[in-house]
Amino acid sequence: MKYISKPVKRVDAKEKVTGKALYIDDIKLPFMLYGAMVRASHPHAKIVSINTERALRKKGVVAVITAEDIPGEKNVGNVKKDQPVFAYDKVRYMGDGIALVVAESMEIAREAAKLVDVKYEVLEEVFDPEEAMSEKAPKIHEDGNIIVYHKVRRGDTDKGFKEADIVIERAYKTQFVEHSYLEPEGVIAEITENGTVKIMGCIQNAFTTEKDIARVMNIDISKVQIIQTIMGGSFGGKDDVMTVMAARAAVAALVTGRPVKIVNTREESMLESYKRHPYRMYYRLGLKKDGSISALEAKIIADGGAYASTTPFVTWRSNVQAAGPYRVENVKVDTYGVYTNNVYTGAMRGFGSPQVNFAIESLMDEAANELSMDPLEFKIKNGLRDGDITATGQKLTHKVSLIETLKKATEASNWKEKRILLKKENEKSERYLRGIGLASSLRGVSLGAEGADAAGVEIKVELDGSVVVEMGLTDMGQGIKTVIAQIVADEFGIPLEKVFILPYDTSRVPDSGPTVASRATTIGGGAAKEATRRIIETLKDAVRETMGVKEVEFKDGYFLSPRGKMSFKEAIKAAFSQGKPLNAVGWYKAPPIVWNEEEGKGEPYFTYVYATQVAEVEVDTFTGKVKVLRVVAAHEVGRAINPQMAKGQIYGGVAMALGYALLEEFEIQKGMPKTLNFDNYLLPTAPDMPEVEAILVENPDPLTYYGAKSLGEPTNELLAPAIANAIFHATGKRLRELPMNLEEVYLGRKLERG
Ligand code: MOS
């Protein structure tokens, strides 16, 4: 292999660094109109009337679009169809959109949006997810406030707790987090001359959007075309929020007969877009004196906000991974997703794991402390190994790399010496205390029981030996275009420059599901390899026919036969002249999984990845500031198709998790966001970054092509507990609530913003 496992340069690097790449806001169509939203004035209220007269009188305003203009279904949603394109009966959070003012310029549209007069009847609100679960709470949707309930059951926890020598009970809490993609949401919709609805935009999961657009517009899916423009980041964030936006633009394009663009300002983006779920997690753990775990119980409550979004799936991942990478024979987990009048919550890198990992990995550190064991020793004793059975009852048949990641990360961070040395040095220090902490995880690869897990890639070979590729999975910056190009170039034995990847367009490739769950390399890579295999088979036939031979072998870019060899290009020409097809669709379906939702048991993912991160911190005890000095991150990836980009995922994931751990919180009080731009929303920047040592552990998985597994999300789910454990090691203070900002570290509680 010339490109696979090599640090190949990104295929889309040049267009981005030269500024040639067109993002949605760079695109302008002839006769295009601009849309601006009228938004809710209350977090929970009945809409009594909408008066658009004053707005319509403003010069330059073309139309004001409301739910009444929708030709089809009024609601959309990834799992439940509970989210209105335009709020019609009531509003459920401050980001709800009621009407779209469409005008000749964005400025006019925004000004006129202020002139739409909406009358409300305010309803009783609920902002606390645990209060929302009570029978007495106001109902946000007709069928009650519980969005979803999942469970895990293994063994007998009553028996397990009876056998325990020590039982610890702990509660952990996490916050709302904004994705903070640099590019805010944007779409352009137009109705083409043949009646198709064509949408361009920074849409992460265009096939999901496509299906909802067909329902809203009351047309066939075949009449919807979604073209993904270059994405300025997503992190799971440009999913259903984009569907709602695309649907609004499509309805406006239908009503006005002109293309309509909607682009959010940063403030609108923060107000409207869904966030990472805040969790409340109540754990109970039974321990034996020998250091083993006898029982684990957890009750997990996720604040889903106003709409279900992907809450049913996010909480499902939390649920099946709630016991972490440990051998526990008696497990009982109950997980709830709940509606409130807060901003809705959905997919965000990690997808339900950063929250439960903060809890379980803090808890395991607390357990080790209770037993007077070193956390590393405790994890090596209880960590999953080859052939072990997980909390959901799954026997692990692949190579279980947890212990390997623990060993590599702790060796590279000098764990054993530092645990003693730092404590000693702290005795001499008045103000600054240092500590070192670790966290580990297992993570299910790809979608698991969330849905059909397959994808397609189409390849067309041209007569000059160059190759065009179309794929059903998207590049939002993570680099899948480069990975697919590496695979195609290597399988064909051609230079990387000969592979050209077309923009992503739902009308040209088979529905490959969403580009989520760190599945693109594993599933899309499989599809690309399969497509190349099909083409090579055709070319072999062409060589057989030309040479009059039976045996043909394809090696290093040449077809070898007993009567001589033919190059890749010659074989293509031969195939063409023989009337053979020069294109193929490769389809890859993930190995099967089993999940019994009623019993809370099964094999939720076909394989897992494992990781360990170690953080070394310095706590300023005068101010509460935590400085992360060094992070060692050892991630098992199966096989790294592009090791440089894989390390990039680790650096980025660590940066993002550092924000989650120490700085970031989308503050919201009584449904009102307190932070609508980055002046108030603290993101980590370069000076906050520690030295990061990224270690790739490669144990190729026999069930996947090239043995490749997942990496994007695992990198982002471990640092918060590693830092919490390091703070405990430094100060003896246990922090159980994120973010561990100055107030939390110094006072042990959060201050409220006025
Ligand atoms: Mo994701 S958070 O699986 O887009």
**DSSP, total strands:** 32
Bound molecules: dioxothiomolybdenum(VI) ion
Helical amount among residues, as a percent range? 25-40%
| Global structural class | alpha+beta
Radius of gyration: 27 Å
Indicate the mean pLDDT.
97
Number of helices: 19
- How do the strands of the widest beta sheet line up side by side? 3-7-1-14-11-12-13
- Mass-distribution shape: globular
Describe the structure.
29% of the residues lie in helices and 26% in strands. With 754 residues, the chain is α+β, with helices and mostly antiparallel strands. The strands form nine sheets. Strands 3-7-1-14-11-12-13 form a seven-stranded mixed sheet. A hairpin with a 2-residue loop joins strand 23 and strand 24. The chain is globular. The structure holds dioxothiomolybdenum(VI) ion. Dioxothiomolybdenum(VI) ion (MOS) binds next to loops.
SSE topology:
Blueprint: H1 13-17, E1 33-39, E2 45-51, H2 53-57, E3 61-65, E4 75-76, E5 83-84, E6 90-91, E7 97-103, H3 106-113, E8 117-122, H4 129-132, E9 146-154, H5 157-163, E10 166-173, E11 186-191, E12 197-201, H6 206-217, E13 224-228, H7 240-256, E14 260-263, H8 266-272, E15 279-287, E16 293-305, H9 311-320, E17 331-339, H10 353-370, H11 375-382, H12 402-412, H13 415-427, E18 432-444, E19 454-461, E20 467-471, H14 480-492, E21 499-501, H15 520-547, E22 553-555, E23 558-561, E24 564-567, H16 568-577, E25 583-589, E26 594-596, E27 601-603, E28 608-620, E29 626-636, H17 643-663, E30 668-669, E31 672-673, E32 691-697, H18 719-731, H19 742-747
Parallel strand pairs: 1-14, 12-13, 16-17, 20-21, 29-32
Antiparallel strand pairs: 1-7, 2-6, 2-8, 3-7, 4-5, 9-17, 10-15, 11-12, 11-14, 15-16, 18-28, 19-20, 19-25, 22-23, 23-24, 26-27, 28-29, 30-31
